[in-house]
């Protein structure tokens, strides 16, 4: 098996309020990626449903945690919940050998 060359960038996510099911967390991250097009561009990061986000390109956030404030997902949830997603840069995985 041959792996492509390049890097994978890992980010730690914190979603508030927490304790949501993975399906809800995935909907939150999908809304975040769609809403913050300037941050994510055309990339489609991979999310594990809990707290790990992976991207093939570095996101323009630097080393400090970034808060993407108050995502309004009332169009998804009947009770109009608002979520705050904070993400910070984790590790960089090198795929080249």
Please give a structural write-up.
The protein has 97 residues and is an alpha+beta fold. It has helices at 22-35, 37-40; strands at 7-16, 46-47, 52-55, 66-72, 82-94.
Topology overview:
Layout: E1 7-16, H1 22-35, H2 37-40, E2 46-47, E3 52-55, E4 66-72, E5 82-94
Antiparallel strand pairs: 1-3, 1-5, 2-3, 4-5
Number of strands: 5
Count of helical stretches: 2
Strand content: 35-45%
Strand order of the largest sheet: 2-3-1-5-4
- Gap between N and C termini: 13 Å
Give the radius of gyration.
14 Å
Q: Mean pLDDT, as a whole number?
A: 79
Structural class: alpha+beta
- The best one-word shape is globular
List keywords for this structure.
globular; 97 residues
In short:
With 97 residues, the chain is an alpha+beta fold. 19% of the residues lie in helices and 37% in strands.
